[in-house]
Every structure is written in structure tokens, then in C-alpha cells.
Design the sequence.
């Protein structure tokens, strides 16, 4: 559902940017955009999410997490790989803040940080050892994670947190 929720978050952020009040009438373009969004909401009924992750204590368990960012938002998703089965476990997204806009490399790092927090929470549900694989297509982010001694406090704080939350992850 994350692609849907991030779309709604971006719409609300846009309304905040233009300083729209709660009961203001939307202009024609925003009204069309909102109607288009709401027309697709009924199709969410077809999405089925299994509660059971389909693994046993003898299963080989891996968590694979993916992080990505754009100029508007960033997201993370975690999958469970057990034997030959792959199941989506969790996903989360955030929009790029209006104030203190971040560069794309910093947004990619935010996505990796969001992923580390999501993987950390997900790993906590398992009693046995879990192999963790974290994926990012940002070579800058991967370099920052390997070298957490960056001079920039923003980068240093997040990379340190990532390495603390999921120290055994293979990036």
C-alpha cells in the first residue's frame, strides 16, 4: 500500500506548500488530481496480504531490504526469503521535507536509514538467526555506510545509526 500512501502524502504536502486552509476550495487541477487518486482506491480491495509468513524453525531465513529515493520521497521495503518462498513483510515511505530540502544523495541515505530501522524491527520478530541483505542503488550511500567517519554530522549520525541497528547486514 506504500505507493498509495506516498501519493496521498505528496498531495497533502502540496496543499501545505500552497498554504491551503482546511475548508478552502481546491482549484480545478488539484480537484482533478484528487478525483483521479480516489477513483483508484477501490482497486485496493484486490490486494491480499498473508498474515502467515510461511516458514518453520528449520527454515533458512533471509531478510532482503531495498531502499530508494527520488527528489520527492524515499521508501524502504523488506522481504522474507525462506527456503524457496519470498514474501513481502513491511514497507514504509516518507516525503522529502519542504524546509531543509535534502540533496538526492542525502535522500538515498535517508532511505537506507529508514530501511535499517525497518530491518531492525522486522528482525526482532524472529527467534533464530536471520541473514540480512540490504540493497541500495546509490554508490554514494554505500560508501558512506562503509565509512561512518564522515565530517558532515547529518551523514555521520545516520551511518552510525545504520551500522548500530543492523551491524551484520550485507550491503
Sequence:
Amino acid at each position: 500500500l506504500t505507493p498509495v500512501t506516498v501519493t496521498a502524502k505528496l498531495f497533502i504536502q502540496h496543499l501545505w506548500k500552497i498554504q491551503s486552509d482546511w475548508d478552502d476550495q481546491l482549484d480545478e487541477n488539484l480537484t482533478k488530481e484528487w478525483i483521479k487518486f480516489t477513483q483508484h482506491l477501490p482497486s485496493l480491495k484486490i490486494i491480499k496480504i498473508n498474515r502467515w509468513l510461511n516458514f518453520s524453525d528449520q527454515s533458512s531465513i533471509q531478510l532482503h531490504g531495498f531502499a530508494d529515493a527520488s527528489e520527492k520521497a524515499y521508501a524502504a521495503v523488506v522481504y522474507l526469503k525462506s527456503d524457496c518462498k519470498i514474501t513481502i513483510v513491511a514497507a514504509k515511505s516518507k516525503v522529502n521535507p519542504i524546509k531543509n530540502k535534502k540533496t538526492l544523495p542525502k535522500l538515498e541515505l535517508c532511505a537506507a536509514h529508514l530501511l535499517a530501522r525497518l530491518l531492525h524491527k522486522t528482525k526482532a520478530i524472529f527467534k533464530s538467526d536471520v541473514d540480512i541483505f540490504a540493497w541500495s542503488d546509490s554508490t554514494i550511500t554505500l560508501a558512506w555506510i562503509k565509512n561512518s567517519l564522515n565530517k558532515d554530522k547529518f551523514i555521520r549520525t545516520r551511518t552510525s545509526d545504520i551500522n548500530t541497528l543492523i551491524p551484520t547486514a550485507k550491503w
User: Anything to note?
Assistant: The chain has a mean pLDDT of 91.
